[in-house]
């Protein structure tokens, strides 16, 4: 593979949609970084003036390796990639990389953690945190719902299935509110393969009330849109910030897993809290 960390390539050159043999042993060269800035340019976000802070939270459910005696260990893992990193890591390459540990002997979890931190940070171009929980330790997951208003019960007509920020509006003559609105109807498609990506999206804001029907139509308008998870969240953030002008904004999406990985990006203005750590029911 020609891609080198620090020199991300076009998504079409990634292993997505191509038959790829699984590596039998540790293979960090499988990681495929993709620069964030190209898509940010499309939505008017300058590299030196990000309007948000945030992270991409990855959960892995198919992590395994061999102990020094050759006995398999299985674990859950979480990876946190800062939104200011110059690159995202393409998800299939991430999956292939993690699976390259399946026949790799490691002395303990600390060695694996150190290795993952080193390789993922190099690919992302920024420090990536790693937390591993072997299943023998009986890890738990909290599955819940946002404390807010579910938009999906609204009776609306929909006829737009590509992102249309013109559907968004707020009511500046009304008093400011602080509320959380969410929907399970988010669907977009992989930028390269066109395969569907499903998720829950949460919009938390302060400011003039946002038209809920318009926001739901806007969320549904991603249904035929081709873009990676992280890029969709940044597009939603940028469109809501521009069209509705909230004084504080947080956008969080919980995507269902593919290949043993789920991705949960969030972007927020610095004055808004990070989302509570829980899993969406479909994850």
Question: What key attributes describe this structure?
Answer:
283 residues; alpha+beta; eight-stranded mixed sheet; two-stranded antiparallel sheet; 10 strands; 28% strand; elongated
What does this entry look like structurally?
The chain is of the alpha+beta class and 283 residues long. 20% of the residues lie in helices and 28% in strands. The protein is built from five helices and ten strands, in the order βαβββααββββααββ. The chain has helices spanning 37-42, 91-99, 109-124, 212-220, 229-244, and strands at residues 33-35, 53-66, 72-82, 87-89, 129-134, 149-150, 177-189, 196-207, 248-255, 261-268. Strand 2 and strand 3 form a beta hairpin. The longest helix is centred in the middle third of the chain and has 16 residues, at 109-124. It is elongated.
Q: Measured on Cα atoms, how large is the radius of gyration?
A: 20 Å
In the predicted model, the low-confidence regions spanning at least 5 consecutive residues are none
Largest sheet: 8 strands, mixed
Strand content: 25-35%
Number of helical stretches of at least 4 residues = 5
Q: Work out the oligomeric state of the chains in this entry.
A: single chain
Q: Pairing-aware structural class of the strands and helices?
A: alpha+beta
Percent helix: 10-25%
* SS elements, strand count: 10
How far apart the termini lie comes to: 31 Å
Order of helices and strands: EHEEEHHEEEEHHEE
Shape, per Cα inertia axes: elongated
Strand order of the main beta sheet, please?
5-3-2-10-9-8-7-6
Average the pLDDT over all residues and give the rounded result.
94
């Amino acid at each position: 593979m020609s891609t080198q960390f620090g020199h991300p390539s076009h998504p079409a050159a990634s292993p997505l949609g191509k038959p790829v043999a699984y590596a039998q042993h540790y293979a960090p060269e499988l990681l495929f970084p993709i620069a964030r800035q190209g898509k940010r340019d499309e939505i008017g976000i300058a590299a030196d003036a990000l309007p948000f802070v945030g992270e991409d939270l990855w959960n892995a459910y198919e992590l395994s390796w061999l102990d020094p005696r050759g006995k398999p260990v299985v674990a859950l893992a979480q990876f946190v990639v800062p939104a200011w990193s110059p690159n995202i890591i393409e998800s299939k390459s991430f999956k292939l990389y993690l699976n390259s540990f399946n026949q790799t002997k490691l002395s303990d979890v600390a060695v694996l953690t150190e290795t993952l931190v080193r390789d993922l940070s190099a690919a992302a171009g920024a420090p990536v945190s790693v937390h591993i929980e072997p299943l023998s330790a009986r890890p738990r997951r909290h599955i819940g719902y946002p404390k807010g208003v579910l938009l999906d019960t609204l009776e609306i007509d929909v006829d737009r299935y590509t992102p249309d920020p013109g559907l968004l509006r707020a009511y500046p003559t009304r008093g400011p509110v602080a509320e959380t609105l969410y929907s399970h109807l988010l669907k977009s498609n992989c930028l390269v393969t066109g395969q569907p990506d499903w998720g829950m999206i949460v919009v938390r804001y302060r400011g003039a009330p946002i038209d809920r029907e318009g926001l739901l139509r806007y969320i549904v308008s991603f249904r035929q849109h081709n873009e990676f998870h992280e890029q969709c969240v940044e597009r939603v953030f940028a469109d809501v910030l521009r069209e509705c002008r909230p004084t504080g904004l947080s956008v969080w999406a919980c995507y269902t897993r593919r290949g043993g990985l789920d991705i949960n990006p969030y972007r927020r203005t610095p004055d808004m809290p990070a989302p509570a750590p829980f899993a969406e029911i479909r994850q």
